[in-house]
Amino acid sequence: MQTLNVELADRSYPIFIGTDLFRREYLAPYIKGNQVLIVSNETVAPLYLDQLKAVLPAIQVDEVILPDGEQFKTLDQLTVVYDGLLTQRHNRTTTLIALGGGVIGDMTGFAAASYQRGVNFIQIPTTLLSQVDSSVGGKTGVNHPLGKNMIGAFHQPQVVLASVDVLATLPDRELSAGLAEVIKYGLVYDAGFLDWLENNMQGLIARDNALLSHAIYRSCELKAEVVAQDEKEAGVRALLNLGHTFGHAIESCQGYGNWLHGEAVAVGTVMAADLSRRLGWINHDAYQRVVRIMQAANLPIAAPEGMTADEFMALMAVDKKVIDGQLRLILLRELGAAVVTDQFDPQALRQTLKHFTA
């Protein structure tokens, strides 16, 4: 078992990475009071809910089981969590536990941020994507039909338990979606990690626990460093959104849940690399490396059939990174170094969109 810390002064917390982490010693120190509400979904709960409940020290343990899928990351389903808290009379010392992937983590965190103006919560991510990204850093929220994650709050967990063994039950498509976020860290921050991923992609796809543990550890290590510097995404944290502006447009256009978040991010990252190439920031060989590593991870590299450049532009205009009407994008200066910028040639962006929607 490996441990990282997200350093946020009195709100700092550990990330435990390893196997067999459903144990009382990893949970008991982070549960406040004697009430727990576990939030999970219909896919994960039958696999791990009883195992988790068996090791909880709380006197009162309740549960809310939501439907599974990005299309259920809504205010209506969030109300179901509030209903569970209120009907079971949870007070402000309660602890919420998110047992599931990124959707469950984001919704549980937002419920914790807003219930009685803020209660404790714990992240137990069960997908690779949530283990390396969404469970760390305190971003919480729900989707709106007009934009992804437009309603939410920053609310840090007490602890993150990333148990690698739960990935054994993860569908292949979900594993690949998580690898898109892992690849992102290499492209944005660490060219050496990108090299390592290229050399070990087949082992990661084959679910080698040692390789997965290293990929999760390095990803969380990089994210923890960024969050410690910029918790509220006022600066460098925005770099973690490489590919997300294009990707969120894909998710919104296709309908939440039809494309997995990581799949949309993979295409969005290739599009960002293409635009970076058109601007002369990276060369053709670097662009092709981005394409090849996404393909090696069994990820898509083309936008959805039938999606138009105008649809991309309209949906990107409501992205959270639009400030004062100006679209900002995360682009690559080189592999391993990214930049947030609104200083790009609009014609080059149009060429990228036309290329991917032809």
How would you describe the overall organization of this protein?
By secondary structure, the chain is of the alpha/beta class. The protein has helices at residues 24-27, 45-53, 75-87, 102-114, 128-134, 172-188, 191-205, 209-229, 244-254, 261-278, 284-296, 309-316, 346-357; strands at residues 2-6, 13-18, 35-41, 60-66, 95-100, 120-125, 139-144, 147-154, 160-163, 329-334, 337-341. 45% of the residues lie in helices and 18% in strands. Strand 3 (35-41), helix 2 (45-53) and strand 4 (60-66) form a beta-alpha-beta unit. Helix 5 packs parallel to helix 8, helix 6 runs parallel beside helix 10 and helix 10 crosses helix 13. It starts with a strand and ends with a helix. The chain has two domains: 2-169, Rossmann fold (3-Layer(aba) Sandwich); 172-357, Dehydroquinate synthase-like - alpha domain (Dehydroquinate synthase-like, alpha domain, Up-down Bundle). The mean pLDDT is 94.
Q: State the helicity in percent bands.
A: 40-55%
Question: What gyration radius follows from the Cα positions, in whole Å?
Answer: 20 Å
Question: Quick one: CATH superfamily of the largest domain?
Answer: Dehydroquinate synthase-like - alpha domain
CATH architecture of the largest domain: Up-down Bundle
Task: State the secondary-structure class.
Answer: alpha/beta
Strand percent estimate: 15-25%
Outline the biggest β-sheet: 4 strands, parallel
The CATH class assignment of the largest domain is Mainly Alpha
In total, the number of domains comes to 2
Question: What is the quaternary state of this protein?
Answer: single chain
User: Alpha-carbon distance between the termini?
Assistant: 48 Å
- How would the global form be characterised? globular
Provide the CATH topology of the largest domain.
Dehydroquinate synthase-like, alpha domain
Mean pLDDT across residues:
94
Uncertain residue segments? none
Strand order of the largest sheet: 4-3-5-6
Total of DSSP H or I helical runs spanning 4+ residues:
13
Number of strands: 11
Order of helices and strands: EEHEHEHEHEHEEEHHHHHHHEEH
